[in-house]
Structure to design on (353 residues):
């Protein structure tokens, strides 16, 4: 499969599956090498899940055959190319439909590929969908992510990372990349939580540290590095503030002792977010994001718009909110008796999550 141009239309990301003989051969070589390494360091459920889904084949498995087996676990996969726009990806996972990249890396990039490909998906992500506890966590992580407010610069950051990964995966030598500043937001922090668990997670077992993160399992180079000199940190909320570059091998990793910890920590994190806290905190987050917000009140009323300003009367406790209608200069004022009346503030496209 040869598709090197950058994708702009949302429909461009969803593709049919077809491969060259060389791509099938690359899969076979990579599979053999990966099993030599991961048989010792992968968490046992990952290897077991790979067998359950019938993925140990000499040619790249067909999406249809994968879905025939995944249905037993309440999941299906959808073929895409490379990095999918974040909210498209998350909305799909929240429905237990996992978008998987079906492009195949080149032989030059066999040890480490910065862009998602079919081997990364099949060897890294798919096996653990057979584990109920992990599968439920992954779905709930996507739902929580859909309720997170973004910063205004996150789309630019995503575009730059996608461009960087695509260029590096083509192994065309050294390139200069622009530096895009990323403002802290709920979405940024939940994405980091996903990276340090779903992509780069470790499990501490009686036999030592084992890998369950998809980015590690699907990278021969990172598999070799992760359990040697890298720093291992017990997973905690501090991971939300630890940035990462998905096109590079990481210097440190976070570990858990069982998959239930993931759901427990995710639940703790979500309780501090605007969509569950509401009130003044929710308004502060929504205003900073400049996204269109959905405000829900205790008496069942709802309001939509961009939060332009708000103030709380120190004497009466009344909360006055200025909302700008998206796409216009028109605004309206909403007055609530106190902050507790505002039960939820969430992105407008997060209804139903």
């Amino acid at each position: 499969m040869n598709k090197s141009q950058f994708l702009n239309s949302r429909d461009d990301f969803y593709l049919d599956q077809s491969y060259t003989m060389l791509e099938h051969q690359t899969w076979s070589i990579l599979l053999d090498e990966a099993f030599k390494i991961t048989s010792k360091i992968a968490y046992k459920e990952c290897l077991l899940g790979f067998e359950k889904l019938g993925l140990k084949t000499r040619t790249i498995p067909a999406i249809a055959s994968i879905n025939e087996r995944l249905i037993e676990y309440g999941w299906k996969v959808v073929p895409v190319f490379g990095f999918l726009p974040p909210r498209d990806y998350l909305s799909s996972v929240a429905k237990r439909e996992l978008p998987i990249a079906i492009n195949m890396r080149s032989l030059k990039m066999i040890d480490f590929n910065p862009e998602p490909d079919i081997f990364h998906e099949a060897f890294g992500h798919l096996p653990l969908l057979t584990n109920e506890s992990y599968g439920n966590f992954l779905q709930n992580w996507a739902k929580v992510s859909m309720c997170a407010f973004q910063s205004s610069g996150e789309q630019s950051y995503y575009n730059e990372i996608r461009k960087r990964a695509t260029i590096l995966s083509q192994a065309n030598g050294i390139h200069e990349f622009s530096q895009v500043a990323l403002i802290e937001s709920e979405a940024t922090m939940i994405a980091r939580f996903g990276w340090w668990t779903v992509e780069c997670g470790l499990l501490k077992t009686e036999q030592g540290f084992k890998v369950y993160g998809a980015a590690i399992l699907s990278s021969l180079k990172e598999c070799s590095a992760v359990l040697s000199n890298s720093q291992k940190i017990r997973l905690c909320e501090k991971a939300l503030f630890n940035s990462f570059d998905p096109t590079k091998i990481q210097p440190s990793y976070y570990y858990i002792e069982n998959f239930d910890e993931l759901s427990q920590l995710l639940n703790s994190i979500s309780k501090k977010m605007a969509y569950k806290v509401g009130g003044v905190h929710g308004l502060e987050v929504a205003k900073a994001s400049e996204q269109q917000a959905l405000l829900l009140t205790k008496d069942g009323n709802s309001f939509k718009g961009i939060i332009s300003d708000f103030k709380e009367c120190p004497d009466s406790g009344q909360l006055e909110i200025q909302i700008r209608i998206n796409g216009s200069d028109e605004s309206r004022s909403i007055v609530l008796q106190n902050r507790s009346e505002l039960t939820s503030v969430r992105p407008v496209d997060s209804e139903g999550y």
Remarks:
- The domain at 10-270 is CATH 1.10.800.10 (Phenylalanine Hydroxylase).
- The longest strand covers residues 302-312.
- Residues 7 and 282 are 34 Å apart (CA to CA).
- Residues 1-14, 172-181 have pLDDT under 50 and may be disordered.
